[in-house]
Each structure stands twice: as structure tokens, then as C-alpha cells.
Amino acid sequence: MLLRGTVVADAHTVLDDGAVVVEGDRIAAVGDAASLEERYPDHASADYDVLAPGLVGGHIHSVQSLGRGIADDTALLDWLFEYVLPMEANLDADGMEAAAKLGYLECIESGTTTCIDHLSVAHADRAFDAAGEMGIRGRLGKVLMDQESPDGLLEETDAGLDESEQLIQEYHGAFDDRIRYAVTPRFAVSCSEACLRGARDLADRYDGVTIHTHASENQDEIETVERETGHRNIHWLDEVGLTGEDVVLAHCVHTDETEREVLEATGTHVTYCPSSNMKLASGVAPIPDYLDRDINVALGNDGPPCNNTLDPFTEMRQASLLQKVDALDPTSTPAETVFEMATINGADAAGFERVGKLREGWKADVIGISTDLTRATPLHDVLSHLVFAAHGDDVEFTMVDGNVLYEGGEFAHVDAEAIRREARNAAPDVDALAAEAP
Q1: Contact 119, 127 (CB under 8 A)
Q2: How far are the Cα atoms of 11, 219, 296, 340 from residue 337, in angstroms, in the given order?
Q3: pLDDT (average), residues 329-352
Q4: Residue 403 dihedral angles phi and psi, to the nearest 5°
């Protein structure tokens, strides 16, 4: 397949009259459209205004998609323990599948081709199957919670780790290696020391299995961890083995100098979730400082109840603007930096090789974006447009692993309306929980 348009190959490479040639699951060539048409005359072709690498959701909660709007204007720990965790606990297997599919549907139609997905304690297998069926690339994990958890989510330490291992054996590397596993403790507040150390031991037993958890999102969380362990959050995670090049920590809003030194020294990845951090009033993550230390920073939406969207373009805009206003510096976190967070940095955090740029020999994860829009007129700088003006619904084409998943408003392999209908049918239970919450 030969795709023509303005090619944004990466944050620093734009080809005005370019093309991307796809053969199988790989990109065969990227370059001048006229030259590639001569080299590949028999390839079917399609035209899009802009072609870009598929975006990477560096931290999402697909299974929270049924809770969009149930807990607005609420502090983090109240939001979590009074609304979101009861919602997750109340979802049966069918509800969990409906929620995951709805989340992946939104990702695919808005240009996210890879995600790092923090699932829930129960029925994680249904989300893995949903991701495989829908064609997204993902690093997924069942959540571990063995303390400070509501009924329906609290489980015995060994039982949670044993189920995680069963899921690793079944799904790590599944669906042509599009799906890989992350051992996923929820966060230090809801996990015992045995659970956290067990997560490290489990990840170490399997090649390519990583770790994904939340850290230092909120001051109350940090105070709780310090009171219970005697350590600040990042130091505690380091003590129990949850730092390193195979670890992704979502948020890291409140870290001191010594904690940042740990993140830097260990090569731990950080995911920046600006919309969630604003909506929950968590604070502003020190992203420029992380980048100055060569800490890899990805970009994530977090969950629909605290965003309330999985649109990666909205997140890119928020990521830059929040840093500029926090620093009172309009040069902070420019478009190029944010685009890298949403593409190659996210791919590195997710642990997928040759993903996140349009390059010969790399995976064929490609999106096509319309600029036939009033807010794209005039179009002086395509990268600026993608970061500051584009929306997820500008995406017209989504390809993962060389497979066309979405084109012209239609999904190629799934019944989108059936997924939305199943989600609507599951929503009354969520509404009832919201009404019962304090």
C-alpha cells in the first residue's frame, strides 16, 4: 500500500509531498511521493492530508471508560475510593469487556495505535481479548491490590500474583506480539510490601515483561506512603524493586531532588498526564527537569473519569500549555518535544521496538489526518497544527502492524455501534453507583 500526503516522519522530519509504502507489517519506504510511485507502481494508493506515526497512550485506563463524568470536581483519593474503584468492582466480565472495547474504540478512532493500559483486578482476560480482537498494540496488565481496597477488588497477595502469572503465560507476546504484559500494582497505598516485591520477582522471571504503576500523583498519597513506610514514594518503590528501565511510573507530579536522582540513575520511565493532573488538581509535574536529566517522558490521558477523553491530540496541547504557564516561559516544552512524548518516547516506555516513527523497516503504525478544516487554515506549520490545533476526530485513517483498523469513519474489523450499544447497556449500573456515592 502506498500512502501519500505531507509526511511527519518524526518531530524533526516533514516531507511536504511525501509517501509511506507499507508491505506486510512493515514500512518499506518513506520519501518523495513521485519517486516512490515510480518504484512501487503496483501498490494500491490512498491520499491523506497528513500522515504521521501512530500516537502512543503512555498511561490509560480503558476499563474506566464507562465512568466518564461520574466523579467530576472531586479530590483524587475520594475520586478513586468513593467512585472509580467501586465502579470497577461492580463490573462483571461482560461489563469489563464492554468498557475495554469502548476505550480501545476511542483510541483507534482518534489516532492512538499503542497504549500502556492499567486494567482492573478482575476479568483482565476479557480486556486482553478485546485488545487483540480490535487490533491495537498494547502493554496491558491486571491490577494488583492486596490492602486498602474496597470489597470486590481486595485479593490475597499470592492469588493476585498467581493470576498475573497465568495471564503472562497466556497473553505476553500474543496476537502476533502486538500485546505484551506489564505487572501492574495499582499504587503503593493499595499494595503491601510483599505484593510490590512479588511484582518485581514476577517480572524478572519472564523476558520482556515490564512493570507499570502510579507514583507521586497527589500529596495525600505521598503522605500516606511516608507514614506507612518511612520513605518518600519513589524511594519506597526503589527499595522494593519498582524502578528501572523496565518500569513505567504514571504521574510523578511531586518528587524532590533525591527522588529525581533515583529516576535518572535507574532509567525509570515517567508518563505525564496533564489533563488528569489539572482536573484532579494534583499539581504540575516537573517535566522540563525530567527531560533535562534524560529521563524518558511519555504522554498519557489517564482514565476517562478524570480527563474526560482519550483524545491524544488534546493531551499534546495540554502538555505544552500547562508547562508554559507553570514556568511563565512561552519557550517551555515546545511542539517538537511534546510530539516526541506522544510517539517515540511512549513507544520506548511501552517497550516496543521500531515503533513511534515513520522509518523504513519500522512497524507500519500509521495515521492519516485531515486538514480540510477551518482551524487548519492557513496551515503554516504542520507540527504546530498537530500539537496545538488538531483533534482526535480529524483522524481519517488508522493502521496498526500494516492492518487498516479505521478508515473514513468506519472500523474495518469490529462493529462500532454494537460496542457503543453494549457500553450504554452497562451504563445504568455505573449511574447507580455514582448516585450512591457520598
Answers
A1: yes
A2: 8, 27, 11, 5
A3: 98
A4: -100, 130
Phi (first) and psi of residue 350, to 5 degrees: -75, -15
State the average pLDDT over residues 76-102: 90
| Under 8 Å between Cβ of 50 and 383 | no
Whole-model pTM? 0.96
Average pLDDT over residues 354-360: 98
- Residue 394 and residue 400: Cα distance in Å, rounded? 18
Q: How many residues does the chain have?
A: 438
pLDDT tens digits for range 195-249: 999 999 999 999 999 999 999 999 999 999 999 999 999 999 999 999 999 999 9
Question: Cβ distance 123 to 97 under 8 Å?
Answer: yes
Mean local confidence (pLDDT), 323-346 = 98
Burial of residue 288 (number of CB atoms within 10 Å: 0-12, 13-18, 19+): middle
Cβ atoms of 366 and 10 within 8 Å: the answer is: no
Give the burial class of 428: count Cβ atoms within 10 A of its Cβ; 0-12 exposed, 13-18 middle, 19 or more buried.
exposed
Give the burial string for 189-212 (b: 16+ CB within 10 Å, else e).
bbbbeebbbbbbebbeeeeebbbb
Q: Please give the pLDDT value at position 433.
A: 55
Across the range 185-192, mean pLDDT stands at 96
Contact status, residue 234 vs residue 243, Cβ threshold 8 Å? yes
In terms of phi and psi (left: phi > 0; alpha: psi -120 to 50; beta: otherwise), the region of 120 is beta
Q: Which three cell numbers stand for residue 194?
A: 510483599
